[in-house]
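Practice problem: predict the structure.
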Amino acid sequence: MTRYRILPERSQLWAEARSSLHPIRIETTGFRGYLEVELEGERLKPDAPVSAQVELGTERLETGIGLYDRELERRLEVRRHPWIKGTVQEVTALDSAGRYLVRGELSFHGVTRSLTGEVTIRVGGDRTIEVEGEKELDVRDYGLEPPRLLMLRVYPEILVRGRVVAEREG
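Answer:
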């Protein structure tokens, strides 16, 4: 297997929560971690083992709106739970267009849950790999209750989209 290091400055997370007033959006960079894969041309080699670990600091989750950010930091308990961590256990090709089904675990706010989702994987020559996907998460599954601030009600489902860019080590 070849190891690829995630490039924090090129890897991004977007999250959008719905509220009774307007959408609440987060956009940040800073993923870190690695991917270990075996390639066959510009695709993952079928039946070859895959390993990956991705982390993002919870302090990076900000909306840019002071009141929301203070409440988000308080609810996420950033000092107590400083990292969101994902691990990959299995990857299965869905088609020849670079779409894959990924099975793994997500650890968030002290809770670890199994997760599956679709991603698109693009190979850039022999140096880079880009993985992109999205998933709707319910924050209650991770021990969080969505806030109510004055007349604002935030719904528990959050659409999370991520792009991880990794570069071959060595």
